[in-house]
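Contributing new records

If you add data, match the layout below exactly. Sequence lines come first and carry their own label; structure lines follow with theirs. Keep one chain per record. Anything else will be rejected by the validation script.
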Amino acid sequence: MFMAETDVYEKLREKISLWPIKVPRTREVMEMLRMLFTKEEAEFLTHFTAPYQDPETMDQIVERTGKPRKKVQAIVDRLVSRGLLFRFTSKRDGNVYYSLMPMIIGIFEFYFVSVRDSDEKRKVAELFEKYYVSGGGMEIGASDYPWTRVMPIEKTVTLDKEISADLTIFPYEKMSEFIKNARRIAVINCACRTKKPCNHPLETCLAFDYLAEFFVERGFGRYLSVEETLELLEETEKAGLVHSTINAQTKPQFICNCCTCSCILLRGLSELHNPRAFAKSNFLPVRDDELCNKCKKCVRICPMEANLYHAPHDKEPERILFLEERCIGCGLCAYHCSNGAIKLVKVKDEVPEMTPREAMMRVEAERVH
């Protein structure tokens, strides 16, 4: 016997909201859950523990649910194939484990990357967008400790003896360090641009280790070498995409390369004006006005409109204005400056938590709404 439909979907919503990034009860959320999960699947998932906590083997799931193994296997395979249940093979003991996923990071990314285009997918995209602009986007940035942070374009970074003499560029501020230390690297389509298409490249986001294996094994990603990954990052920088990752020093899990057209993280600041949407990098651009030829490339490429062109008039000269409060420290202006007039300089030392687990615990601890 199944519990009442309303109860089972509400219980599932409550269960996935045990993750620090909650899922408010809205009409769009409940409709999405009903579209994504059958009543049987929703009831099945309510037996799991909190998202990504205490993953279980098939034997443990069978024992916990009390359902026949054949039935459990069928439900699990169905959910995994649609990107709605996480599966990985442990490098520690070789066992296959399964875990409930939250909405973010989880159902949203896996579903939109994994599921082929269909009427259902377009409808879910429409519902998610309505949910995002009516409160869900603010929930993604609901903590004084943002769960993601901007990564600067590494080749634009410098230490300035006058500005940052007492600061250090740490390994966690270099994408090359994350990439070199990864066991597996895969490139996948951007879930944000799959949901809300724009003119930027689609196959741009990076997954690491277990996440990389999950996507590749199911045919929705491809492995990259370190060299290929660095080449991909170069292409995303040319396309004007911002690098971001989880706000931790180690085990990054993913690197998003995204835009303010589509990204649920970047739009949190550019569109929803939420200062907690993500953590800005520890860097700011510094312009040499003598080298600047006013080509306006920095104005056109800046995702946050932090650079503004000031036309000459009366006695005021032509110049580029910089609005520091809008800058996120991505380095795109420095990368695209053909005259080398801009460099990215370290201006602060905000140190993230060591691991993703510690980062998400702090997100929960510093939640403000």
